[in-house]
Fold each of these.
Amino acid sequence: MLHNMSTTDDNNNNNIDNEVLDICANCGKEGTNLNICNRCKMVKYCNAACKKKHRSKHKKKCDRRVAELHDEALFKQPPPQEEDCPICFLRMPTLLSGTVYQPCCGKTICCGCSRAPVYDNEGNIVTDKSCPLCRMPPTPSGEETIKLMNRRVEVGDAEAIGQLGFYYALGHHDLTQDYGKAMQLWHRAAELGFSQAYFNIGASYDGGRRGVEVDKKKAIRYYELAAMTGNAYARYNLGNFEARAGNLGRAIKHYMIAVRGGDKDSLAIIQKLYSNGLATKEDYLKALRSHQEYLGEIKSVHRDRSAAFSDVYKYY
């Protein structure tokens, strides 16, 4: 009985101690409502003045930890960029030419299902190329396509916003070419989670295209955002940046992730690095297995037919 009471008292004391474990990194003051460093999350301060005084001492450790956290997020294998095709339920191909956005219903389907036969309720093949999902017939003009796209934009459809930016960038569907408008739409789509928009912005800064000056730092930043959300092309470009900087270890990490995401160019580079003794046999074999797994996940008869029909529909 006394032993139990003593244990309870000890637990209460431990709880009290745990409440005041937080210590200001500058002045050593203890408290329960200290402000944590919002960059590294490692130290706490009792006020802004203490944080400012301690900045010079903390900066190196803080920067190192921030870099570690960034790399943890950057080199984590991301999920596939696209959801499975809503018709065949297979993984979407990586290449944009392997997917088709349907502005009528706001869905993205794979290139195979976009060219597969469509049947009506009586089992007859529909020959008017209606949407396989909502059965809406194809739009007769570029103007009608833009009207459909704008309806999707109005409801906050991220992919529609990104696609509309692409149309403005290239002047498709009778739109006047407008790079500024394209970048605005891509930024908006990126904020809503459309990975390809991050890539498009990064590519614009990378090559000094679409009305912006070359800015490699911005290009890398947007490529990283795209890569962390599953864009294999952005991952490949990051690998190239690291390789040119002489950081082969980091470059190979990027290429390996890109291969699992379906990028065959990354596989070719890993093969070349292995041939030149700059990558291990294990790296090369792992890349081959990853690429085969990807091909197995996306393969279908209709996709093979689409790929054979035209280079536009190649998905591997």
Note: Confidence is low (pLDDT under 50) at residues 1-20, 310-316.
Amino acid sequence: MPPSPGRRGEGREGARREHIVTSNLLRVSVLGISGRMGKALLAALDEISNAQLSGASASAASQWLGKDVSACAAGSPRNVSITADPASAVKGATVAVDFTLPAATVTNLRACVAARCPLVIGTTGHDAATLAEVERAAREIPVLLSANMSLGVNLLLKLAELTARALGENYDVEIFEAHHRNKKDAPSGTALALGNSVALGRGVALADVADYARHGQTGARRPGAIGFSVFRGGDVIGDHTVTFAGSGERIELTHRASDRLTFARGAVRAAQWIVGRAPGLYSMQDVLGLSP
């Protein structure tokens, strides 16, 4: 289950600044440069006139270690070598963006805390121990954790909460998600975040009402249950639908992603937003001004 927002930086209106940013240049370190999202981040950074890549990391087994970023992402040389050491990758960075694997999150967190570098985490599938590390790091630096960096998805999260609050438990809720065949975790972090939004709207804990599997003689639907279904196949980037099914009508809230740049652009916007914030754990809801 995705974490609750946790301790925030002080002051909801823009979150009190911990320091004054003295340069308009956004120097971004990308942790996980050789993956799909790492490459998309490079393209998104190229769309921002005052942003540049300052560092990049990949796994210790990567074939790209020691090479210029352009080797794995194509394009002109960027004079940034890929390293397996996140501490080296974040050196001199204004902000770091992490799209690695859950197993690498703790190491990346510690590197950013040591460098006093804000961190945006788009990696999903963290266990409870890692999420606890995230919250500890957020006492030292600003950390933004989101299961999905899409601006549209984060609006959908709010809409799901508001709809659940308005309709109540008389409407059954099902959350469907579809992703490419290589996605490793299920349900997706975004589907779980949507489940948490519905549960929040109803004033319950998702753990108490989630239904992740149906097989055999399941009996009638449990009142108040939030159901999940998962599709894996092909090259689907990410589809999510929350259905509220009542007597005589259904309401469906859907988001479909057709380009990974959607998530990368959201991550870059989050990186721009978090620079200068006070230590705390933030979400994309904060970036969009949707947090209470």
Note: The longest helix spans residues 151-167.
